[in-house]
Amino acid sequence: MNSFQKKESKRTLFSPVSFEEAPSRPPSPPKKPPRKICGTNYPLSIAFIVVNEFCERFSYYGMKAVLTLYFLYYLHWHEDTATSVYHAFSSLCYFTPLLGAAIADSWLGKFKTIVYLSLVYVLGHVIKSLGAIPMLGEQSLHRVLAVIGLSLIALGTGGIKPCVAAFGGDQFEEKHANERTRYFSVFYLSINAGSLISTFVTPMLRGDVQCFGDDCYALAFGIPGLLMVIALVVFIMGSKMYIKPPPKGNILAQVIKCVWFAISNRFKSRSRAIPRRQHWLDWAAEKYPKQLIMDVKALTRVLFLYIPLPMFWALLDQQGSRWTLQATKMDGNLGFFVLQPDQMQVLNPLLVLVFIPVFDFGIYRLVSKCGIHFSSIRKMVVGMLLACLAFAVAAVIEIKIYEMVPSQMGPQEVFLQVLNVADNEVKVTGLAANKSLLEKSIKPFQKTPHHFKLQLNAKKQDLHFLLEYQNFSVYTEHFLEEKNWYSLILHGNGENVSSVMVKNVGNKTTATTVRFVNTLQTDINISLGKDTIISVGEAFGVSPSRAVERGEYPTVYCRTKDEDFYLNLGRLDFGEAYLFVITNKTRQGPQAWEMEDMTTSKMSIAWQLPQYALVTAGEVMFSVTGLEFSYSQAPSSMKSVLQAAWLLTVAVGNVIVLTVAQFSGLAQWAEFILFSCLLLVVCLLFSIMGYYYVPANPEETQGPENKQLSHIQGNMINLKTKKTKL
């Protein structure tokens, strides 16, 4: 998740704006001055708000970091389904701020809204964590709990999003505006700190801790849920210190009513001889104040520029979905540290903290010294181009991965890997309907097994194999089913040759998995940890794949009915599938012969760094600049509405991703290229729209009071100038 979507507005989304004179109220009793922090002008109450925000952001981004892998490996959804649900959840998180802001401004106020929706938030985490405990029910129940939990979390996080930052700003008096500005800096720092730490820690809780015999998703969801409980408790602890402004009305509702009245009044006037008006919003003049109409006009001019923006978010938000899925196909071993696929997301908040000062104090100033006018719209265009380039790089990486691993199996196709553990070379010929499907000589104990893609004549078929070994020729028959991996294990003792066919389950989790082939004439029990015992039958028995903790395994204890011995398995890395053949070939005691279980990509996960750097640089240029530009161009009374519109562009962007994921049917590299091209077209459209955009006069964006103040200040400056001349 990008960092600037995390930065909530400095005020409630729909701050109250009164266009009529409010009735007089009796004077309020004098208020007790708020407690300060160490003698400063900072209210003590903001400490509770900042801690609350850190814990809440840790909770949200920690849970979201492992969400895609949870869908893929725990709920066993297809990659497209996992991507669609991930972005549906993200989209809902940016639609619900409308509801939260409306509740806060029109009904409960910010404090009660935060408390009540935080309870909903906690309930969502509890349900989500329960859904990750395998023993609680069938897979269908886990999926239902996941959907319910995510819906409640989306309502909770989205509902409090527009309230928390604004509630912190409410704690300051107007005379302490400078301290309030610094508070928002600390507030945003807490957001990034929570995101940065949780995105790094939560994947470790998932992958490095084993529970229920697999990755511990229950813990990975439970700890963020606990942080949300802490966030709520800390927030309530400061209740008596808070300044709690009452709800005063919803400006968004006034804007919608004004626009609707203008449109309906325009169509009604067609039947009457009424002179045309300069602007379509002028048709609201019969009911709404002139100032409101002028503000809505300024607002619509900016909203028109928002039309192309969702496509940028569609690319940016795929860091947690498609890019994480790409990372699962790469080697996370960096030598000094092994990265989990979902830990790569930590690069975004980390690079944001690095790039903001680099751009503000370096690149922008350098461009300015070169005499280039780098306007806000130009910065946003460059940000879009960088995101396009990032996805082009991601497509190249995906193509390289695609070349390193076997292609996807089509109808009536199977993959077959052949392992020769005999004491001599074996020639293998695969026959189906008197047609040769493969013909290959396999050397004994080859490090890398031979892989073949076979085309069957039906979905299920018996395949005949001719095995030629020294002076022997043997026919064997094995049953195969389409779209599956199989291992054909050959073994011979100098007098005969035979084979065993094993259906591969494959590594369907991000955990390290092992399996064993036993060539000894006795059963073996292999101890790979306190609770991991693998039994392998005698005479070429094959064990099922088992997940184990990664690390060094120099002395693995093995027991047979006649003797005990130890095997050296070496280092088992994250996300790899290992096949060990237990043999006594050297007659010096049993040994473990390591082979590749199946072809996997050996491309380092570090190759994702360029695409993360490009897309984060694009985010810094697009998101920060876009917010600044929007606020500068919108009237003061409409800035909260504009923040709501900005969040909606994020929601629409996620809808675009889930739509493409469900209906495109493209290979992943082709989908990356599609998104890159779409954003390039949108970037061109936005450039044209920006070229013809006429920036608003600063006076147009000020309220009546500010305009009057500016006029007075201007007169004072003129008076001072005259005195100086005299």
Topology, please?
Elements (H helix, E strand, L loop, with lengths): L44 H21 L1 H8 L4 H30 L1 H21 L8 H31 L7 H31 L2 E2 L2 E2 L1 H21 L13 H18 L21 H16 L4 H7 L5 H6 L19 H23 L6 H29 L8 E8 L5 E7 L2 E8 L7 E6 L4 E10 L2 E10 L3 E8 L4 E8 L7 E7 L5 E4 L5 E4 L4 E2 L3 E3 L2 E3 L2 E4 L4 E4 L2 E3 L4 E7 L7 E6 L12 H25 L5 H25 L4 H24 L12 H22 L1
Parallel strand pairs: 3-9, 11-20
Antiparallel strand pairs: 1-2, 3-6, 4-5, 4-7, 7-8, 9-10, 11-14, 11-15, 12-13, 12-17, 16-19, 17-18, 20-21
Family: Belongs to the major facilitator superfamily. Proton-dependent oligopeptide transporter (POT/PTR) (TC 2.A.17) family.
Membrane topology: Multi-pass membrane protein
Keywords: Membrane, Peptide transport, Protein transport, Symport, Transmembrane, Transmembrane helix, Transport
How would you sum up this structure, described in words?
It is found in: Apical cell membrane; Membrane. The protein has about 725 residues and is of the alpha+beta class. The chain folds into 4 domains: about 1-20 and about 35-250, MFS general substrate transporter like domains (Growth Hormone, Chain: A), CATH 1.20.1250; about 250-290; about 300-405 and about 605-695, Growth Hormone, Chain: A (Up-down Bundle), CATH 1.20.1250.20; about 415-595, no CATH class. The protein is built from 17 helices and 21 strands. It has helices at about 45-65, 65-75, 80-110, 110-130, 140-170, 175-205, 215-235, 250-270, 290-305, 310-315, 320-325, 345-370, 375-405, 610-635, 640-665, 670-690, 705-725; strands at about 210, 215, 415-420, 425-430, 435-440, 450-455, 460-470, 470-480, 485-490, 495-505, 510-520, 525, 535, 540, 545-550, 550-555, 555-560, 565, 570, 575-585, 590-595. The strands form 6 sheets. Strands 11, 14, 15, 20 and 21 form a 5-stranded mixed β-sheet that branches. β1 and β2 (about 215) form a beta hairpin. α4 (about 110-130) packs antiparallel against α5. The chain starts with about 45 loop residues before the first helix and ends with a helix.
